[in-house]
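Researcher: We plan to redesign the surface later, but first we want a full-length starting point. Tokens attached.
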């Protein structure tokens, strides 16, 4: 009787779980509506229809899957995992349900849980080969290199492409600290496939990287001569310091049109940057010119040429330096003509002309550069200098260029500082008292005025005695010493100005007040000016004492020894 009752109960439960054809059709219609709103990105209404579909058919695994997708988009990862787990329970053989679960876990940075989902997919489903590399990536993220390698091997098996991922497996073995296993794998491949040059190159490269350079060279010599093997052999010989052995191979590789150009350019860059005195500069010059002849107007070749000749110019003797610098300029001008919108090329060209004080060239090129880059403060700065110093320049145009440069350099304090210093120099040269009085240095975090401006003041005071301009300087300094009360260099300039104006007692008092408050900040220049003022006040012994202190502190004028010896101001 009990068995009959249990059978009736099970039958009743089965019937209650079954869905009628009508209900199933209704559930599918609700799914269609949900999909429509999903495509319209109206996810809340899509969720509402999916939930209605599940009320009709609680075993609708596709509805749970779609809910999981929506929750992934909405970043509601826990809800998404709950939904997709329901789908997996109903349909455990669907690979896409495990893939979505893995994506949800990865979105929570839970790679271990994602890996578990992928492992369930491998166990419960088929036709998963296109996802094996994703699984390998997850295991790499977990640092489980052995399992990552297994996934690569399984990919090779499923696609019937043995050894396709040899390089990747080698890298994973090395990351796992298994150099011997990596070497053994490559060694076996070279033995099993003796005609495969790629395996030999991989093996030789790994031998070289592990310090087994002789063995690597032997392997490379056994290969059919190729550009790749030659590149490796060249690098080995250079690492051993044997340039003479590498030299013919370098010449051969540079003339080989089949050899990889990017590898040639990398080799030239490395050779020119090397500190070895065994590589003649003339040889590198010859190789670069060979590349120019084979690849005329190739932008990357010309860019490499600029780097190579810049390096050669730094190492060259004085008689050869200008020839290499000329090659640099030729390369930059070629690059500029080939691509006039390349900011970096213009920047290098103008900077080089500015540093070399090639004002005529700078005037032409900076004007051209500004036609392409009218909002570059640095280019206006270069243009202003060119207008200031070239034979065809215009000083008013120079000043206008500096003003424009300053407007454009609001967010570049270093450039703004250079521009203000240059404007100050210009004002001093032109006797523009108003601009001198209004000079405002850039703000610094050091609590000191820009050193370029300080040196400009001192150079002017040492070479000029125009009282009107020095009075203008004095007014500017009255303001600056209040803004920068700890700047000993600034007080040095202020004391020098007072000295030039003949206000010796005032200068003495200024310095003594500063010495009391900031004794740790004293410079040799300030002490020397202190001595100069004392001398003018006829305090000879006190002056000599300060000059001696100045000499011991350093950073004094070249007349300090003479002042001390003769007890006299010069």
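Model: Full-length starting sequence:
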């Amino acid at each position: 009787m009990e068995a009959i009752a249990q059978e009736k109960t099970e039958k009743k439960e089965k019937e209650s779980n079954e869905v009628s054809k009508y209900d199933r059709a209704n559930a599918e219609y609700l799914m269609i509506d949900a999909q429509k709103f999903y495509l319209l990105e109206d996810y809340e209404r899509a969720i509402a229809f999916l939930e209605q579909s599940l009320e009709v058919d609680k075993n609708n695994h596709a509805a749970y899957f779609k809910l999981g997708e929506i929750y992934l988009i909405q970043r509601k990862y826990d809800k998404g995992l709950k939904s997709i787990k329901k789908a997996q329970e109903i349909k455990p053989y669907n690979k896409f349900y495990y893939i979505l679960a893995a994506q949800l876990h990865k979105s929570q940075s839970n790679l271990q849980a994602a890996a578990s989902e992928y492992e369930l997919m491998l166990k419960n489903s088929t036709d998963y080969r296109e996802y094996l590399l994703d699984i390998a990536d997850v295991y790499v993220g977990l640092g489980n290199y052995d399992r990552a390698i297994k996934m690569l091997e399984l990919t090779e098996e499923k696609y019937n492409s043995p050894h396709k991922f040899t390089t990747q497996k080698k890298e994973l073995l090395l990351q796992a600290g298994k150099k011997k296993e990596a070497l053994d794998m490559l060694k076996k491949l070279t033995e099993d496939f003796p005609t495969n040059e790629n395996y030999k190159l991989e093996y030789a490269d790994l031998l070289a990287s592990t310090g087994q350079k002789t063995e690597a060279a032997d392997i490379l010599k056994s290969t059919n001569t190729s550009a790749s093997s030659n590149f490796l052999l060249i690098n080995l010989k250079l690492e051993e310091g044997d340039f003479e052995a590498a030299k013919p191979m370098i010449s051969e590789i540079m003339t080989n049109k089949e050899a990889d150009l990017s590898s040639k350019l990398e080799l030239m860059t490395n050779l020119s940057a090397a500190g070895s005195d065994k590589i003649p500069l003339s040889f590198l010059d010859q190789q670069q010119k060979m590349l120019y002849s084979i690849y005329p107007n190739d932008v990357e070749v010309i860019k490499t040429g600029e780097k190579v000749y810049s390096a050669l110019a730094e190492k060259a003797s004085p008689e050869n330096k200008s020839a290499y610098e000329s090659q640099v300029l030729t390369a930059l001008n070629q690059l500029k003509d080939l691509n006039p919108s390349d900011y970096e090329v213009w920047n290098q060209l103008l900077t080089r002309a500015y540093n070399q004080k090639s004002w005529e060239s700078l005037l032409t090129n900076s004007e051209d550069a500004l036609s392409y880059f009218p909002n570059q403060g640095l280019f206006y700065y270069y243009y202003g200098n060119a207008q200031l110093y070239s034979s065809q320049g215009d000083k008013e145009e120079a000043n206008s260029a500096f003003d424009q440069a300053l407007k454009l350099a609001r967010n570049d304090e270093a450039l703004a500082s250079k521009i203000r210093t240059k404007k100050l120099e210009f004002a001093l040269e032109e006797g523009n008292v108003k601009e001198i009085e209004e000079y405002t240095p850039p703000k610094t975090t050091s609590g000191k005025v820009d050193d370029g401006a300080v040196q400009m003041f001192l150079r002017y005071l040492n070479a000029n005695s125009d009282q009107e301009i020095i009075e203008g300087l004095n007014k500017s300094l009255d303001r600056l010493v209040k803004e920068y009360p700890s700047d000993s260099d600034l007080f040095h300039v202020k004391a020098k100005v007072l000295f030039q104006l003949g206000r010796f007692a005032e200068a003495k008092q200024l310095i003594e007040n500063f010495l009391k408050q900031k004794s740790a900040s004293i410079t040799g220049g300030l002490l020397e000016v202190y001595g100069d003022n004392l001398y003018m006040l006829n305090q000879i012994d006190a002056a000599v004492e300060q000059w001696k202190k100045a000499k011991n502190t350093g950073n004094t004028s070249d007349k300090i020894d003479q002042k001390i010896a003769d007890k006299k101001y010069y």
